Amino acid sequence: MDHIGIDLGGSKIEIAAFDAAGAQLLRRRVATPAGDYGATLETIRALVAGAERERGARCTVGVAMPGAFSLATGLVKNANSTWLNGRALREDLESRLDRELRFDNDANCFALSEAVDGAARGAGVVFGVILGTGVGAGIVVDGRVLAGANAIAGEWGHNPLPVPGDEDRPLPGCYCGREGCIETYLSGTALAADHGRATGDHLDAARIAERAAANDAGCEATLRRYESRLARSLAGVVNVLDPDVVVLGGGLSKLARLYERVPALWKAHIFSDEVRTRLLPPAHGDSGGVRGAAWLWARA
């Protein structure tokens, strides 16, 4: 049986189908109807129906979602796509698709994909980071996703930024109600906002990187602030979890300079005389979430 993965992101919804050996059979991507819960459900239903028509068979479906299900209510919690919070996403989607579904956090799915047959293949402990619309992470230990007692394992984005300096203040407010969360510094929108505050120029992350490579001093300074914040934040993870591999995903994982600059910076904050943790780009690009969602069935 083919396995369908759905990646429900803040800006896009992606679907892909894979055979039992992991070969990709189809892939589609559409814009997320942000803010509209009903339209989000209908978009997913239509994508699955179209994929199954193309494959000519009913498939299993796994969903990579932002946030998690509350252990108390069963409703979505902690999603940066805030229109999903408080919703019975599992029940509503299973009703529309008329089948049992498997769900996991999008960062967990990304980490699982990279640990199974991606950049971290064979590693014992993997910390898979999403640097995109939001900031999240998943933890995979010996090929199994670590959920945690409160279903929040890997939610480093809502820890406070370590060792904030003058350039990190004032602490930005976060949608979660706190101030100074890692997400408010390391998401793509946070990077653009930081650059705007420092320079008055409103550029996205890709353009900032382009200009930094062309010796734009303001853009270079923005990326250096970002690298310092990322290094401090990941150093805290290494000190607690001590992973073999940290894999970056999301749009900002495409910044090639991060893989050299950040390990050089995080050494000052890691409690070890030698740091063997590797920081790697994803093997599967931005398809990690959708592949990991499919693996929720294929690797069961």
Task: Describe the structure in your own words.
The protein is an alpha/beta fold and 300 residues long. It folds into two domains: 3-105, Nucleotidyltransferase, domain 5 (2-Layer Sandwich); 119-282, ATPase, nucleotide binding domain (Nucleotidyltransferase, domain 5), CATH 3.30.420. It contains nine helices and twelve strands. It has helices at residues 37-55, 89-97, 106-117, 183-186, 188-199, 205-213, 217-241, 258-266, 288-298; strands at residues 3-8, 12-18, 24-31, 60-65, 68-69, 76-77, 102-105, 125-131, 135-141, 144-145, 245-249, 278-280. Helix 3 crosses helix 9. The longest helix is centred in the last third of the chain and has 25 residues, at 217-241. It is globular and about 55 Å long. The protein starts with a strand and ends with a helix. The mean pLDDT is 94.
Question: What are its keywords?
Answer:
five-stranded mixed sheet, 300 residues, 37% helix, Nucleotidyltransferase, domain 5, 9 helices, alpha/beta, 2 domains
Tally of DSSP helical segments:
9
The share of residues in extended strands comes to: 15-25%
Overall pLDDT metric: 94
Q: Count up the domains.
A: 2
Run of helices and strands = EEEHEEEHEHEEEHHHHEHEH
Fraction of residues in helix: 25-40%
- Envelope shape: globular
Query: SS-based structural class?
Result: alpha/beta
CATH superfamily of the largest domain: ATPase, nucleotide binding domain
